[in-house]
Amino acid sequence: MHESSITSSIVDILKNIIKEKEINKILKVHFLLSPYGGIDSDSIKFYYEFLTKDDLVLKDAKLIFKKDKIKIACKSCGESFESLKLISRCIKCKGSSLSVVLPDDIKIKSIEI
Ligand SMILES: [Zn+2]
After folding, report:
1. Into how many domains does the chain fold?
2. Ligand 1: centre distance to CA 96 (Å)
3. Which of 11, 26, 38, 73 has the smallest number of Cβ neighbours within 10 A?
4. How far is the CA of 6 from the centre of ligand 1 (A)?
């Protein structure tokens, strides 16, 4: 389980943002998760609650998780598109020569204050 270290770096990032922007309450944090990253959002929530329990700015924030998209480009026709699933054929020319970029395992998309 590496969710505890991931969550503690998320909390560090949020604390830096709070300091920089002088935020006094974070209401929601939106995350994007890779569909193939294998990160368990419930574990992130669990560690977040534990790590922020004494932090008035962070502790009541609602964590919202969405799946990030995979970026795919077709080497035959040049079409590029995004998908939640890995696919084996281009949506335009049906070619099978694709370059695939998986998103980061987790990223902070936005914060509501
Ligand atoms: Zn194509």
Report:
1. 1
2. 8
3. 38
4. 36
Sheet containing 70-74: give its strands across: 80-83, 70-74, 98-101
Token pair for residue 79?
A: 């079409």
- 99 has pLDDT over 90: yes
Query: Which pLDDT score is estimated for 1?
Result: 53
Pairwise CA distance, residues 104 & 98, whole Å: 19
Span from the CA of 82 to the centroid of ligand 1 (angstroms): 13
- CATH code at 48? 3.30.2320.80
Please choose, from the candidates 106, 96, 89, the residue with its C-alpha nearest in 3D space to the C-alpha of residue 36: 106
For residue 87, the CA-to-ligand 1 centroid distance in Å is 12
Task: State the average pLDDT for the chain.
Answer: 95
Domain housing 104: 3-112
Which of 61, 51, 60 has the alpha carbon at shortest distance from 30? 61
Alpha carbon of residue 96 to chain centroid: 28
